[in-house]
Write a structure and sequence with these properties.
- With 111 residues, this protein is mainly α.
- It has 4 helices and 4 strands, in the order ββαααββα.
- A hairpin with a 2-residue loop joins strand 1 and strand 2.
- The two termini are 19 Å apart.
């Protein structure tokens, strides 16, 4: 079965198998999956850590830093900022490494 990907271009099963078994594609895919898994795990640890702290550490979060600010507020802001930092790390890696790896792979396979 052939799949049309662009005008005047098709990918058949042999081409798909060749791409999927290419060492550069395997390395690209595993690198991307590893980075995505690490950043996702960090995000979940930070997020659920905060949720667990809210559930079981109310005394800690209710300590006051100033008359109107508890320690929970900066921790909550830190959770949001950390998620932005993780997105920034991924975007920076993708722009610097992933996109060039994809371009090299496209040139190699003629895509």
């Amino acid at each position: 079965m052939a799949v049309k990907v662009k005008e005047n271009a098709t990918i058949n099963k042999e081409s798909t198998d060749r791409i999927l078994n290419d060492p550069d594609f395997i390395r690209l895919s595993s690198t991307r999956n590893r980075i995505a898994a690490v950043l996702t795990a960090l995000t979940l640890i930070v997020y659920y850590g905060f949720i667990l702290l809210m559930a079981y550490g109310k005394e800690t979060l209710s300590k006051t830093l100033s008359p109107n600010i508890t320690i929970g507020l900066p921790i909550g802001v830190a959770v949001i900022v950390l998620s932005w930092i993780f997105v920034f790390i991924y975007a920076r890696w993708a722009n610097r490494k992933y996109d060039s790896m994809v371009d090299q792979l496209k040139e190699k396979i003629g895509g």
